[in-house]
């Protein structure tokens, strides 16, 4: 079946992570429901039996009240205990599965290709991912557990009524399974398309709201502000239409189950009346049968919401499922031969969906300890070349051999974590003394010394906010901690004021000996660090002058001063 | 009732990606202008909720018929005489389902309508909020409040309100129906009902503080994942994927065990509800049984219950607790719903508004370059403690090209924003092409302006859509013309009709500025260009190309450029130097 196929990776994950707890949770849920049904049925039997016995004082005296009364109290306690156990088990299991799910998702998105997608559309992908994770946690709690409970209930009711008359049991069981599972399944089928429409409408609502707020000035000045407001409203109307349809489905499913419940109750009542008047069962048993039928459809009501959410869950597992497949081998990196740190031969790179290659049959070497600046107009391929050397990108053709590298990215990404762990990302084994040394070299020791928590200070949201210059210095400290013979610097001082930029560059320069360095830049002060300048245009190297050559100075002079 | 009681609570509190990067609740400025009743559900929602009372109350006659029918069976009546009772039971059941469906539907419709209205209000006031208003919410925060957070409003209005109403009235109606037969079961239920909230409060209280902290941490589990995904480039660069994945797992596992420690207590409060509900039913059943046997003869107002009456009471006992259980299962909807209502109300704050803002759609047919005359302008909103502009005068002749040159903080961007009517003036006046800039004329005046910001926004859409922006007067020919003028053909070749990346990722800084030029060139009927630091963050070659493009577009139009780039300023007819607080004119 299609549904099963879609859910297979998710269910496999559930099974791998917490199989026994998941089963125990479903079992306890079934016990809870059965205890409830038995409690009501037994109470009915007890009342009826005592009412008959109470008609004469002799029978009233002989009636054993204690066994049924104790059983009733036991069922009440059992139901409570089972319910408590069920909630603990199902939650523990779900939390465990979600922990595993997060780890797997993270690993998936760390693959080069998916990581690139993530960089391009972080906001939309992350929104989608969160929504999908949230949808998946309802799969077990709202769909799988209630379905298991419903089936167990139907069987139990069939057996109970079947002991009175096989046909009644068979009929009631069949009716319960057909309507109790059939109605939610039909609802789930109808809900699928609307759930998807709703998810898309919400994505549109979100991205249009972002466009409205972030692009407000551009919209206002082009006379499109009102149109954008209307666009947001239209997305909400689409979401409302989908919501409304889902609500119709839920309402119909609820009404369907309600009618089924009434029919089952009426049918059982008549069957019990017929059996009693035929003398096949006595009065108390008839009362028990009626009350069991009354309680029988209760667990199916839980499936009504689960059915409507099943559509959303399907979409989520269709999108997340593939990320749970075993990872493909990482991009292999060939070591460069002796004497060279980077050796690129005849390499071409084309970005996905782009008709023209970003790099054309490029030949490029960097000798050990050499410093090279990449310059060229924006879009010439500087960042692509850096990504190729760093191993973030693979070449479509040609050969790439590089040493282990450390990349100083254009944007400094700090994590919501301690200063220590932010630094140790680059060197997991580094001790505090090493970290302090790196911070000192990067010019951050004063700041860190002034922090009461020192290296234990939290960064990011709710923690310490760093200025642009300070985060750059932190990135520099990370670079220094990294034990790599090749440094790749992507516009290392862009966006810093002149004084800070010169200080950062001075610190970089003094730490450079022993490393080969490739700097992508359009600023003169950065390119001045280099022994050789590579001028890129349209993905090709057009010139590569060395220090001392005339072209070198001309190229430097054409760059932006401070 | 213990808000921490519900099962789904623990798993539903995970934060959304945008939440993860917003400021915590405590640091947010409380909005004092907000009327309190804005956070309360609208009246029609309450009216719709009352519709759902009917099916719950109809259980009374249905249970009565059922008890009668069982009584008849025991009395040995022929099954044919019970048919009508059974038909009545079924008919009432069907009626209850129909009424319940209608009630759910109406409650949904009114709740959904409220949600749309609340969203509209928030969106409209966000659109009017001046970009110079420092308290204007960031786009991520606003989008998250409008999209994810408001999703909690629907369950709150459509489910919680009816549940609360049922929990208030249905138990009372049931008690009132039991008392005439016997006061003992009524007393049992009455005792159990107030004990439930009491015990739940006692247990829930202690758990609540701990569990709320825990829920915040649960949210941080998603936050941790999203934070690391956002910084994936850095993690990959340092080969720290395995390290981070293991930490992610360890964090989630330790969070799980800590959460379970809290849930073990929190779930006790819901177990108490279950226990009392089950014991309530059991005690009612046991009392009735002993009553029949003559061991507990009191209670029935001196008489004796018959079988049907006893069964009727037994059938009502679980129904007495049902609304309470329903309420407890939707309890978490309330906290989330009220938080969402408050967040929307905060977005709907007025703050500083832009001037005009209703998109005058009438085309400007005045092709002559506009003059700009600024008299005694004063403005201080954007700066915290000092005036940005004070008593500032400027005359720009039609067709003149003027550079406003000054360091950052000198107010040159604010000046440009004020000419565009992005915030109301505090002092002085601005006259453009002979028309005084007021809220009545602002939209019409903006129709003649071109705005080129230093960070043009890239909208979700293709390159072509980003140039045309859906303007009715910008057809394919104009878009292609603008593309050529801004030298963007190679980008069009590379990206074609593909959607551009978030915030223009994949485009270089120069390409984004060229896109802004193309956007500017595509419009028609413009005669005043306002450019805010168009060459900031660009390399010299690209800056020169952007300058040429700007001058090309500005042919025959008035141009005012705010910049700190001396090369760009030198290409203008005149340079006006701005210093912090002092404006002085130079040749």
UniProtKB/TrEMBL annotation, chain A:
It comes from Phyllobacterium pellucidum. Belongs to the ABC transporter superfamily. The chain crosses the membrane at residues 21-46, 52-78, 139-161, 167-188, 246-265, 271-297. Keywords: ATP-binding, Membrane, Nucleotide-binding, Transmembrane, Transmembrane helix. GO terms for cellular component: plasma membrane. It is found in: Cell membrane. GO terms for molecular function: ABC-type transporter activity; ATP binding; ATP hydrolysis activity; ATPase-coupled lipid transmembrane transporter activity. This is Thiol reductant ABC exporter subunit CydC. InterPro entries: AAA+_ATPase, ABC1_TM_dom, ABC1_TM_sf, ABC_CydC/D, ABC_transporter-like_ATP-bd, ABC_transporter-like_CS, P-loop_NTPase, Type_1_exporter. Residues 344-559 form the ABC transporter domain. GO terms for biological process: cell redox homeostasis; glutathione transmembrane transport. Its main location: membrane. Gene3D superfamilies: ABC transporter type 1, transmembrane domain, P-loop containing nucleotide triphosphate hydrolases. It is a multi-pass membrane protein. Residues 23-312 form the ABC transmembrane type-1 domain. It holds the Pfam family ABC_tran.
From TrEMBL, chain B:
One of its GO terms (cellular component) is plasma membrane. The keyword Cell inner membrane does not apply. This is Thiol reductant ABC exporter subunit CydD. The keyword Methyltransferase does not apply. Pfam families: ABC_membrane (PF00664), ABC_tran (PF00005). Residues 1-40 are annotated as: Disordered. It comes from the Bacteria. It is a multi-pass membrane protein. InterPro entries: AAA+_ATPase (IPR003593), ABC1_TM_dom (IPR011527), ABC1_TM_sf (IPR036640), ABC_transporter-like_ATP-bd (IPR003439), ABC_transptr_CydD (IPR014216), P-loop_NTPase (IPR027417), Type_1_exporter (IPR039421). It comes from Phyllobacterium pellucidum. Coiled coil: none annotated. SMART domains: AAA (SM00382). Its main location: membrane.
């Amino acid at each position: 079946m299609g549904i099963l196929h879609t859910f297979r990776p998710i269910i496999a994950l559930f099974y791998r992570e917490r199989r026994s707890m998941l089963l125990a949770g479903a079992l306890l849920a079934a016990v809870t429901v059965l205890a409830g049904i038995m409690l009501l049925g037994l109470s009915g039997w007890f009342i009826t039996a005592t009412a008959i016995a109470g008609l004469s004082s002799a029978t009233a005296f002989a009636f054993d009240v204690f066994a049924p009364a104790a059983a009733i109290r036991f069922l009440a306690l059992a139901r409570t205990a089972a319910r408590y156990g069920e909630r603990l088990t199902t939650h523990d299991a779900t939390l465990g599965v979600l922990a595993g799910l997060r780890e797997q998702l993270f690993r998936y998105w760390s693959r080069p290709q998916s990581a690139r997608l993530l960089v391009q559309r972080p906001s939309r992908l992350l929104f989608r991912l969160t929504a999908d994770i949230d949808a998946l946690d309802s799969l077990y709690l709202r769909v799988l557990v209630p379905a298991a409970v419903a089936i167990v209930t139907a069987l139990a009711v069939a057996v109970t009524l079947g002991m009175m008359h096989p046909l009644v049991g068979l009929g009631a069981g069949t009716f319960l399974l057909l309507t109790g599972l059939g109605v939610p399944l039909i609802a789930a089928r109808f809900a699928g398309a609307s759930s998807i429409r709703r998810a898309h409408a919400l994505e549109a609502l979100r991205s249009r709201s972002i466009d409205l707020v972030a692009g407000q000035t551009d919209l206002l000045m082009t006379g499109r502000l009102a149109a954008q407001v209307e666009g947001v409203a239209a997305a909400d109307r689409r979401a409302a239409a989908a919501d409304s349809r889902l609500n119709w489905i839920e309402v119909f499913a609820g009404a369907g189950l309600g009618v089924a419940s009434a029919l089952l109750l009426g049918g059982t009542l008549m069957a019990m009346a017929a059996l009693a008047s035929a003398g096949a069962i006595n009065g108390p048993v008839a009362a028990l049968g009626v009350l069991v039928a009354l309680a029988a459809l209760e667990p199916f009501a839980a499936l009504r919401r689960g059915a409507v959410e099943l559509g959303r869950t399907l979409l989520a597992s269709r999108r997340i499922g593939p990320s749970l497949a075993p990872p493909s081998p990482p991009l292999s990196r060939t070591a460069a031969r002796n004497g060279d740190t980077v050796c690129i031969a005849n390499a071409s790179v084309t970005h996905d969906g782009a008709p023209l290659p970003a790099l054309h049959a490029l030949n490029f070497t960097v000798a050990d300890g050499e410093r090279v600046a990449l310059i060229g107009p924006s879009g010439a391929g500087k960042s692509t070349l850096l990504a190729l050397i760093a191993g973030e990108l693979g070449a479509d053709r040609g050969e790439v051999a590089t040493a282990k590298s450390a990349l100083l990215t254009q944007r400094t990404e700090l994590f919501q974590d301690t200063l220590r762990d932010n630094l140790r990302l680059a060197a997991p084994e580094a001790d505090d003394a090493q970290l302090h040394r790196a911070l000192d070299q990067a010019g951050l020791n004063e700041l860190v010394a002034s922090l009461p928590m020192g290296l234990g200070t939290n960064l990011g949201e709710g923690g310490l906010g760093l200025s642009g210059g300070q985060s750059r210095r932190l990135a520099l400290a990370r670079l220094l901690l990294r034990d790599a013979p090749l440094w790749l610097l992507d516009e290392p001082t862009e966006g810093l004021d002149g004084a800070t930029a010169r200080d950062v560059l001075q610190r970089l320069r003094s730490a450079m000996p022993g490393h080969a360095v490739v700097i992508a830049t359009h600023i003169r002060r950065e390119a001045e660090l280099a022994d050789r300048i590579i001028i890129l245009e349209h993905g090709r190297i057009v010139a590569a002058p060395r220090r001392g050559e005339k072209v070198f100075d001309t190229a430097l002079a054409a760059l932006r001063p401070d | 009732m213990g808000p921490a009681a519900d099962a789904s609570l623990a798993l539903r509190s995970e934060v959304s990606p945008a939440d993860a990067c917003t400021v915590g609740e405590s640091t947010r400025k409380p909005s004092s202008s907000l009327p309190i009743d804005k956070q309360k559900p609208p009246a029609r929602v309450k009216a719709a909720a009352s519709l759902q009372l009917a099916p719950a109350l109809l259980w009374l006659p249905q249970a009565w018929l059922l008890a009668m029918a069982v009584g008849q069976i025991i009395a040995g009546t022929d099954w044919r005489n019970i048919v009508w009772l059974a038909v009545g039971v079924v008919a009432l059941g069907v009626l209850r389902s129909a009424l319940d469906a209608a009630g759910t539907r109406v409650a949904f419709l009114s709740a959904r309508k409220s949600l749309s209205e609340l969203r509209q209000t928030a969106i409209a006031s966000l659109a009017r909020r001046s970009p110079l208003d420092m308290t204007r919410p960031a786009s991520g925060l606003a989008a998250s409040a409008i999209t994810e957070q408001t999703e909690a409003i629907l369950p709150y209005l459509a489910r919680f309100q009816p549940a609360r109403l049922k929990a208030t009235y249905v138990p009372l109606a049931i008690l009132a129906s039991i008392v005439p037969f016997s006061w003992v079961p009524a007393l049992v239920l009455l005792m159990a009902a107030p004990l439930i909230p009491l015990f739940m409060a006692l247990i829930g209280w202690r758990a609540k503080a701990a569990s709320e902290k825990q829920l915040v941490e649960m949210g941080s589990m998603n936050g941790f994942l999203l934070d690391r995904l956002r910084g994936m480039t850095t993690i990959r660069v340092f080969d720290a994927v395995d390290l981070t994945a293991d930490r992610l797992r360890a964090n989630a596992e330790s969070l799980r065990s800590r959460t379970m420690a809290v849930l073990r207590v929190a779930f006790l409060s819901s177990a108490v509800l279950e226990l009392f509900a089950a014991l309530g039913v059991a005690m009612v059943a046991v009392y009735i049984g002993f009553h029949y046997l003559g061991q507990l003869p009191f209670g029935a107002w001196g008489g004796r219950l018959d079988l049907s009456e006893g069964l009727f009471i037994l059938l009502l006992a679980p129904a007495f607790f049902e609304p309470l259980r329903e309420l407890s299962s939707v309890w978490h909807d309330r906290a989330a719903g009220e938080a969402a209502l408050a967040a929307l109300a905060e977005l709907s704050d007025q703050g500083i508004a832009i001037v005009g803002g209703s998109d005058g759609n009438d085309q400007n047919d005045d092709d002559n370059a506009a003059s700009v005359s600024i008299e005694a302008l004063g403005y201080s909103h954007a700066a915290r403690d000092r005036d940005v502009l004070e008593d500032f005068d400027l005359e720009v002749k039609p067709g003149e090209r003027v550079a406003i040159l000054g360091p950052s903080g000198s107010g040159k961007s604010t000046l440009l924003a004020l000419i565009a009517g992005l915030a109301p003036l505090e002092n002085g006046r601005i006259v453009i092409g002979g028309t005084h800039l007021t809220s009545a004329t602002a939209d019409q005046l903006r129709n003649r302006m071109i705005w080129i910001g230093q960070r043009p926004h890239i909208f979700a859409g293709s390159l072509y859509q980003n140039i045309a922006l859906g303007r009715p007067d910008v057809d394919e020919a104009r878009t292609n013309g603008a593309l050529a003028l801004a030298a963007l053909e190679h980008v069009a070749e590379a990206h074609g009709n593909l959607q551009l990346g978030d915030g223009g990722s994949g485009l270089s800084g120069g390409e984004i500025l060229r896109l802004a030029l193309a956007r500017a060139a595509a419009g028609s009927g413009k005669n005043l260009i306002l450019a805010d630091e168009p060459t900031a963050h660009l390399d010299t070659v690209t800056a020169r190309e952007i300058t040429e493009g700007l001058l090309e577009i500005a042919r025959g139009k008035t141009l005012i450029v705010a910049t700190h780039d001396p090369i760009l300023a030198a290409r203008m007819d005149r340079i006006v130097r701005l210093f912090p607080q002092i404006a002085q004119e130079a040749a």
